[in-house]
Design brief:
globular; alpha+beta; 33% strand; 5 helices
Amino acid sequence: MNAENDAIISIHPHHAQAILDGAKTIELRRRIPQLSVGTRLWIYATRPVGAVIGVATVERIVRGEPEQIWLEFGDQSGIGRDDFDSYFDGSDVAIGLLLANAKRGTEQVAIKELRSLREGFHPPQVMMTISNNEAAALQRMTNIDISCATHAW
């Protein structure tokens, strides 16, 4: 990760909205790239939205057997048990990114604008790190007051 620990994460629009509304405080994954507490995640809502719509900070990372993660964090996941079980079917590990300081941008940053920041930009399948300059540009473009979405260190 870069010094500021910023990354773009792809999330289905329904779940992205739930994070920004505060109804979903954990993002569940079967796998994630190297990531640390304090990372600022710029939330890219996948199609049909296709834009960065907000930001949240990774407050804690939990790993465990899916059953253990469901029992401890299922009520924060924004999904039902059937969807959880279907997503983690065949997986021995569940990873949860506990999120804090979620902020919605007053402006969305569409794919065309993202490509102006990084030539050939393609939305990440899971997550990708971004540079300090790219993060600063996203902050300006989304009109998010980062002082309220600060790193947790």
